[in-house]
Amino acid sequence: MIGIGSIGTAIVKGLLNTGEVPPSNIYASARRFESLERARSLGINVSMDNRWIVTNSDVVILAVKPFQVENVLKEVRDLLDGKVLVSLVPFATIDRIRELIGDGVGVEIYRAMPNVNVEINAGFTALTGSGMRRDIVGYVFGLLGRTVWVEEKVLDLLTLLTACTPAIIAEILDAFMLAGLYLGIPKEIVEEAVVHTFVGTSMNVLRNGVYSVRNRVITPRGLTIKMIKHFLRTNVKYSIVESIVETYRELEKAMSVYT
Ligand SMILES: NC(=O)c1ccc[n+]([C@@H]2O[C@H](COP(=O)([O-])OP(=O)(O)OC[C@H]3O[C@@H](n4cnc5c(N)ncnc54)[C@H](OP(=O)(O)O)[C@@H]3O)[C@@H](O)[C@H]2O)c1
Q1: What does the radius of gyration of the chain's CA atoms come to, in whole angstroms?
Q2: What is the pLDDT of residues 136-178, one digit of tens each?
Q3: Does 115 share its domain with 231?
Q4: Which residues touch 166 (CB under 8 Å, ≥6 apart)?
Q5: What is the distance of C-alpha 39 from the center of its chain?
Q6: Average pLDDT score over residue span 2-18
């Protein structure tokens, strides 16, 4: 793992949860001493030396920020020969990564877009790339939750819907909890009630579909339809669509330098 930050740590925790990957098999790097110490507490091997990390690994996961990709790849490219490289960096295309590494290096390049739920093996990871060792990549991310292989363009389109959405859902959960607190529901009950309602609804939607669930809660002149009317008046649904689409457009523009 080159870059054991937020998502790197979540992936390592998920892998360790399975018991299938011993901590001694995981090598991870970061820049700052504090980050390395935090990673070391997971029992894995840590170093500031990316070359040492790559030398010891068969599968190299690149989990740094987009502006750090070029320097990191320049530093380790000759050592990538014969390895599998999985980049988590949005918008850095396989072609661009190949260009930075150079043609002479026999590395299989894949991209993955996971979300933070991999830390409890309930992640969703979009994967892209083709090569002989696609099954290894599918296996590693399959240990962390659900995976789907997609075309490279779709992986970028999914960035906000999968990687960023846990934070947005947490914000929405918080709004529901605040409403509950405002109405006077005790703190320990409001969290349980809201979270389990979200989890249960998600499971129900998976099985029965979104409209089926909604339509069975709505009754003529009932409470739910009144609440939905308020939601529609305040444009909550439109705001969610608009915020995702607009943020994606901004991201696409900002990231065009890395593609
Ligand atoms: N967070 C998510 O949920 C998520 C989901 C999908 C994809 N991604 C993508 O994954 C990448 C990492 O995101 P993040 O949220 O984990 O960011 P982050 O928390 O900032 O982690 C980046 C890590 O890279 C390390 N690093 C920086 N330069 C390095 C270098 N030259 N050599 C080795 N390590 C270096 C940093 O070290 P220090 O800690 O010492 O600074 C840090 O630990 C980004 O491209 C992001 O878009 C993130």
Answers
A1: 21
A2: 999 999 999 999 999 999 999 999 999 999 999 999 999 999 9
A3: no
A4: 115, 116, 117
A5: 19
A6: 98
The token pair that represents 32 in the structure block: 């700052």
Q: Is residue 72 part of a domain?
A: yes
Query: Which CATH number does the domain housing residue 194 bear?
Result: 1.10.3730.10
**Which residues form the pocket of ligand 1, taking CB atoms under 6 Å from any ligand atom?**
2-8, 29-32, 35, 50, 63-66, 68, 71-72, 88-90, 113-116, 163
Count of domains observed in the chain: 2
Choice from 11, 46, 53, 65 to test ligand 1 binding pocket (greatest atom count within 8 A of CB)? 65
Instruction: Give residue 209's domain range.
Output: 161-258
Q: Do 144 and 205 have their domain in common?
A: no
- Residues 178 and 125 occupy one common structural domain: no
Rounded to whole angstroms, the Cα distance separating 79 from 216 reads 58
Q: What's the whole-model pTM score? A: 0.94
pLDDT in tens, 177-220: 999 999 999 999 999 999 999 999 999 999 999 999 999 999 99
